[in-house]
Amino acid sequence: MGTGRRDLRVAFIDQTGDVSGGAQESFALLLQHLPKWIVPHVVFFHDGRYADRLRGAGFQVTVLPVSDALSASKREHASIAGLLSAPAAIVRLARWLRAHRIDVAYTHTVKAHFIGAPAARLAGTRCVVHLRDILEGPPLLALRKICAACSRERIAISQSVARAYALPATTVVFNPLDLGTYDVLPSRAQACAALGIPFAPDVPTIGIVGRINRWKGHDKFVRIAANVRSRVEARFLIIGDAVFRDADFVDELRATVRDAGLQDACTFVPWVDDVRNAYAALDVHVNCSEREPFGRSVIEAAACGVPTVCFADAGVSEVLSDKIDARVVAPGDEAAFADAIVDVVRSPQKRAMADAARRLARRFDADAHAAEVAWILTRAAA
Fold first, then answer.
1. Tens of pLDDT, residues 107-147
2. pLDDT per residue as tens digits for the range 242-267
3. Is residue 40 classed as helix, strand or coil in its secondary structure?
4. Where are the domains of the chain?
5. Of 10, 66, 203, 315, which alpha carbon lies 20 to 30 A from 280's?
């Protein structure tokens, strides 16, 4: 080690090893950039492609399956059967934590908090919860109580998330980027070829990237796109798939595109493993989310030199500077949002905004992120 400190055994607990989204991408980067004296043990409640990816990267992965009822229970619809099966999952995880002499349990998704934090308390293991979601109503109150009772320190991915839970010992640590990944970017033509779409160099391309979920505001994006298209020739990309929930929303969204008369201008592109292709194809990136906790797509777009238009709503706007590296409009004002896109497309300052966006991305270095999280884990274990 060469640091004079002992190894710290940390159980990194996530709810699923199958599908992945922005939280899982940030989690994978954290694991890859941790200092050597952190010994990670990754725990999932389900196996799958994401778990295999971490195994392939050399991480020790354990799967502790939970009941089908608990697996199917969602934050919006917590089933009685799922709640009744939670204690067994908590006890099983607590036994695992004790058996593996874990120093700190780290949880970073909602179901992982509800199971992992009480399990750590039961096992007598220190716990750090990494809060990535803004819940509402009873789920928010329940999670706040669990965090207060079962965790020693909290990490929030934005000030908005920290304010939502209003707990002491909460440190804001923005999500990370592997900046080296963005040193070399595909050309616009290469990116379009990778996405399977025609290359149209003279037509501005506006896109939304990420999970297709209702709260992400894709329906707003379609309405905004129709407004923009009435004034400037442009094409629009919806890049991503329905992940975790809202599978039926995709069909609704396609119908909304047809109703708006955008069939020839709006293209659905499946999830892409190399996000650089998604952003390199764009002139403008948009985030239409409601109360987005952070918005990983915003910093990924910035690293590719693509400015974002978003609502001044929660964490997504915290890292951006209006009219410098982005355009930030009043929450819910779709007309102003469309105006902002048109302004960016027509602006003679597009290159300056792109350069400012690249400078912004440097704030999210993965090594610095991992070092700060490691310090919090060490502090919690002390």
1. 999 999 999 999 999 999 999 999 999 998 999 999 999 99
2. 876 778 889 999 999 999 999 999 99
3. strand
4. 8-176+365-381, 179-364
5. 315
Sign of CA dihedral 46, 49, 52, 56: negative
Amino acid at residue number 324 = I
Q: For the chain, how far is it from start to end, CA to CA, in angstroms?
A: 19
Neighbouring-strand partners of residue 207: 237, 285
Residue labelled with tokens 């349990």: 105
CATH superfamily, region 8-176+365-381: Glycogen Phosphorylase B; (3.40.50.2000)
CA angle 282, 222, 243 (to 5 degrees): 80
User: Phi first, then psi: what are they for 40, rounded to 5°?
Assistant: -85, 135
With CA atoms as reference, report the closest residue to 331 among 319, 318, 313: 313
Enumerate long-range contacts of 349-354, CB under 8 Å, 24 or more apart: 350/283, 350/307, 353/307, 353/324, 353/325, 353/326, 354/305, 354/306, 354/307
Question: To which CATH superfamily is domain 179-364 assigned?
Answer: Glycogen Phosphorylase B; (3.40.50.2000)
Task: Give the distance between the most distant pair of CA atoms in the chain.
Answer: 65
- Which SS3 state, helix, strand or coil, does residue 213 take? coil
